[in-house]
Design goal:
The chain is an alpha+beta fold. It has two domains: 3-58 and 211-270, no CATH class; 103-206, no CATH class. 19% of the residues lie in helices and 29% in strands. The chain is built from eight helices and 14 strands. It has helices spanning 65-70, 76-79, 94-99, 127-131, 146-156, 166-170, 179-189, 192-195, and strands at 3-5, 10-12, 18-23, 26-29, 37-46, 105-111, 115-121, 136-143, 205-206, 219-221, 228-237, 240-243, 247-250, 257-264. The strands form three sheets. A seven-stranded mixed β-sheet has the order 1-14-5-11-12-13-10, with no helix packed on it. A four-stranded antiparallel β-sheet has the order 7-6-8-9. A three-stranded antiparallel β-sheet has the order 2-3-4. Strand 2 (10-12) and strand 3 (18-23) form a beta hairpin. The longest helix has 11 residues, at 146-156.
Amino acid sequence: MPHFILEKMQSNLQEVVKYKLVSNKEVLEVNNLIGKKIELKYTGQINCIKCGRVTKTSFAQGLCYQCFQTAPEADVCVMQPEKCLAHEGISRDMEWAKQGCLKPHYVYLAKTSDIKVGVTRESQIPTRWIDQGADTAIKIAKTPYRQLAGLIEVFLKDFFTDKTAWQKMLKNEKTSDCLIEAKKKALDLLPDDFKKYIVRNDEVVSIHYPHEKTPVKIKSLKLDKQPIISGVLTGIKGQYLILDNEFVFNVRSHSGYNVEILTHKVPVGQQTIF
């Protein structure tokens, strides 16, 4: 019975996104489970994904309280890039900041539930888009460090959302607005100080997720309330497993949770017809 300390699924952009779960020596190719019954059994233990210590509560998607207070992965600029001060030599960990905050960053528009504006490190493209469940995305600006990208994002948040309505995203209820037109609007709005960072390439990246049918109704499942979760895996989008085309399990929000994962073939007479 494979045992995993959950972390966000790793993804690879191909014709259809390929997902895998990795924990210690265990590797699970999640796409291969679509159409099969899976069972997640929570052992009742949570380990910090930073230091490994056992914790009663997970903070910031997988950290114990001590790491939440001290680790650079939980610094204020992770959620609010405009507050990053690494370019001024201020960070919880400057070595970490040199590999993260002080690398080139992109401001982008992505079509999730609506057209949203976001920021990500250059090395996290397209992973960031996949994690958000974006169907398409386009780069609008490139900056030499994180804070500048954050300032551009803050300006554009007056005109575009920076949130994803996860239920609409999973049900594929996205806006029909054109990303290229949205980018043109964004660039026209930018103050002159930001225009030197504009990305002129208008390539729209399309992302396709493995699924057999788009769910109509969705209910989120959490291991704290339901320690055994089971159902036929009918799709994957963002960091969500879609079960029985109705229930969803957010893998990333359960980072650090210890689970045992079982898989079963679905008898021919019990298979869901799509």
